[in-house]
Amino acid sequence: MDPKEFRRIGHETVERIAQFYEQLAAQGLEQSDGTSGSTSSLGVPAPIPRIPVLSQVQPGYLATLIPSEAPETPEPWSAISSDIEQKIMPGITHWQSPNFFAFFPSNSSFPGILGEMYSAMFNSIGFNWQTSPAYTELEQIMCNWLAKAIGLGDAFLSSSTSSLTDGRPQLGGGIIQGSASEAIVVAIIAARQKMIDALKTDETDDAAMAVAGKLIAYGSTQTHSATKKGAMIAGVRFRALEVDPVTFSLHGETVTAAIQEDLANGLIPFYITATIGTTSSGAVDDIPGIVQAASEYNVWVNVDAAWAGSALVCAEYRHLLAGVDGVDSFSFNMHKWMLTNFDCSPMWVKNRKYLTNALSISPAFLRNAASSSGLITDYRDWQLPLGRRFRSLKIWFVVRTYGLEGIRAHIRKHIQQCIIFENHLLARPNLYKIVTQRSLALITFSIVPPSESKWSANDLTNAVCDAINADGEILVTHTVLNGVDVIRFVPGGTLTTDAHIVGACRVFDRVTAHVLSQ
Amino acid sequence: MDPKEFRRIGHETVERIAQFYEQLAAQGLEQSDGTSGSTSSLGVPAPIPRIPVLSQVQPGYLATLIPSEAPETPEPWSAISSDIEQKIMPGITHWQSPNFFAFFPSNSSFPGILGEMYSAMFNSIGFNWQTSPAYTELEQIMCNWLAKAIGLGDAFLSSSTSSLTDGRPQLGGGIIQGSASEAIVVAIIAARQKMIDALKTDETDDAAMAVAGKLIAYGSTQTHSATKKGAMIAGVRFRALEVDPVTFSLHGETVTAAIQEDLANGLIPFYITATIGTTSSGAVDDIPGIVQAASEYNVWVNVDAAWAGSALVCAEYRHLLAGVDGVDSFSFNMHKWMLTNFDCSPMWVKNRKYLTNALSISPAFLRNAASSSGLITDYRDWQLPLGRRFRSLKIWFVVRTYGLEGIRAHIRKHIQQCIIFENHLLARPNLYKIVTQRSLALITFSIVPPSESKWSANDLTNAVCDAINADGEILVTHTVLNGVDVIRFVPGGTLTTDAHIVGACRVFDRVTAHVLSQ
């Protein structure tokens, strides 16, 4: 493919991307008469095809459509682009649909897409400073921008590299990890090395293993599974602590009790994930209490604010950061709720040396004058893989295009939308029961079985959830809280308007009535 | 940014990408008179600016050019695009330059870029089958395409999901990891769990830790640092075994001796990385011998063919796969030498259950009917992070656009280019000494000090390497082999033509003469 052909196909692709988002924006504005029509962005009924949020294909669908061996000779782009529409599109679950209310949002935006295009253009592998200084330096500056924008303390900022020439040591700093899972693994590994270094009796592997074999990491029963998986990856013990049965948040006293119990049993507590905005219900752990409990025993506290972290750009939610000054590391996913295409998980640490102590390896072929001087940051020593993409570009594009004001408006819009939905539930107490109070833009609820109905609340809630997702108009996720089956509702799509929320309310009313009528 | 504005800026960006590659393609065709002019792709001298391969900025350059806080209000795209050119471009080390001969190549291509554009458009998070069936199924099919294209045995293929309805179990299969480093960590973790399960005396954490504390992973002194780092991440011991002093490859007998020695010392060998194409010199380990040594002790063999794996599309290099039928896992980086933008590291295993045993977690909020049925693959259980991008699209676009024939021509071109360079070295034995024989498209050499010169060979080689990289015309990497400092030369750029190799030869001659004249 030469530049001329790329120009033609590239322009075609830009058109397709714009159309894709126009079609999604016009999706599923369910009519007040209960039919599932669609309306164009101009408000005029238009023949826009209905795109189910949840892919409707069956397992194995694609193997019947695509050859089982690679072609020997080149194929024209027209064959490929036709296959995208005919074979790939039906197998997409549309996270960008304005009617996607499942899991957590996965914000795309046009400046985010442009960031991916420029990143693909450069296609350098910025594993150390020299392999593309702009990769490292823009990432440092963007992490500082974000840290300030969400109110993280100065301790998490990296000093500018230029200021280093006066010999001031850099302690804290930020990096963009690929995902919250990777941020958690990195924190666990840094914490493990810190504790091993503190307790080992000599420099042998045996001494290190004697400590490692006793280490235990904590989360709560509501902590994202990434912490348990992170402990599995690191090969350390893991314990899920009980949460408050009403708020589903983890208390400091629970942590203290667990630490004391495990110490008494000969184990070594070394790490805990505290969550701002749990996956199931958006609960916020008692971070001041956890920090107090952990600091007494030198336990590393990592805050996972994967989803809720974006809301911290708004001053009215800044109180959620209480206690964060005392934690060791913090991360959130810009790719969830801050208009930035996946993947983009900024992570900050208060002391970078614990990352590099745990993850740095410098063989001869990766050494160079700039790295050895200590003047620069080599991000390969802050993360699991060696190679890295130019992820900071999309942060730069998104934040400048929207401005912090625009990002705050985006967050507030979705929280307001969740309030619209909450009010719909509250107005129908015979139909819906709120199980956990709204946390930012997340609310959980169950369906109330009519009196003398054959249904249990759990079964009915699950049946309605399944019927709604099979219907394809909207998508939501199910979870279980203390034995209670609930539906999670989380508006957050870039394209989601208030009208889509009103439509979603109608879908719930309609499908619930339908399930009950069967 | 609305669709209309995205169209305008998107088209502008497509133009910029096309220009970027046109400008790079015309770079550094050094004139035969030794001046560093440039020539357009039409062969007509054109005023194309010289773009140094190695970024010429100083540490901290960007902090002086960019505000230290995010903007409150939106900025126009014109300000952003101007900043890309003025502030970012100088900080790029141009891995896409045809004169990049350092590290290993990082192949970009236009279909690869289109793959990133479509992936950014969908922006779904395909962590399990249901969250976008096309993500999972295209990835399975692409891994099968590639496995067949490079000659991996049937044991590494995944059966199509549709064929599963007859109850045939799926054993092997492929996944696209983000990087070879991640593939190695995943293999280490799977191998660790397999050995723990085999040896633990009961189901307690204590029993598992008793085994884990004795585990030792192997690589050679030439294995990529990702294996040592992988062992650090997994928290297991690591030992680098000695290689053949001439070929730099690891022998089976060395592995047997190490296993027996470590067993005698109470350790438990469980994992080894065998390399096809080491980073320093392109050495190929004795895989049949290593497999024989390892299989006797139930040690997991993982083949890292990160760079050289791409060459296996050519029948004439298929002999490098000897013994691979007996290994447990295999990976290579399409993003190095197979025209596919970073990141794209296909990995295959012979028994998928060892991955899922080590990495699977299924909390309620991630459960769904399709996953529970066992009919489908949930790739989150085959990798470190939860979320994943739609990486298989770019494989599909690249392989169909070039065809296997086109990909083979790409590989053969670079090997032929390395032969041109090798012949240049061979013709000047008083100036250059080949240290390791050419392996595919990689050769290492040192500079020969003139008799009665003040230079040692090592110092002179390093001085020439530094001077060449500072010059900016081409970029190469230095390494050390058995105490001998060498320059690695690896043609592999998508845009690299034979003329660029001839130009590189002239640069070496010119800079060496200059260094010697000082």
TrEMBL record, chains A, B:
Top-rank taxon, per record: Eukaryota
Matching InterPro entries: Aromatic_deC (IPR010977), PyrdxlP-dep_de-COase (IPR002129), PyrdxlP-dep_Trfase (IPR015424), PyrdxlP-dep_Trfase_major (IPR015421), PyrdxlP-dep_Trfase_small (IPR015422), Pyridoxal-P_BS (IPR021115)
GO MF entries: carboxy-lyase activity; pyridoxal phosphate binding
Sites bearing N6-(pyridoxal phosphate)lysine, chain numbering: 336
GO annotations of cellular component type: cytoplasm
Cofactor requirement: pyridoxal 5'-phosphate
UniProt xrefs under Pfam families: Pyridoxal_deC
Keywords, sorted A to Z: Decarboxylase, Lyase, Pyridoxal phosphate
One Gene Ontology biological process: amino acid metabolic process
Family indicated by similarity: Belongs to the group II decarboxylase family.
Protein name: Aromatic-L-amino-acid decarboxylase
The species this protein was found in: Physocladia obscura
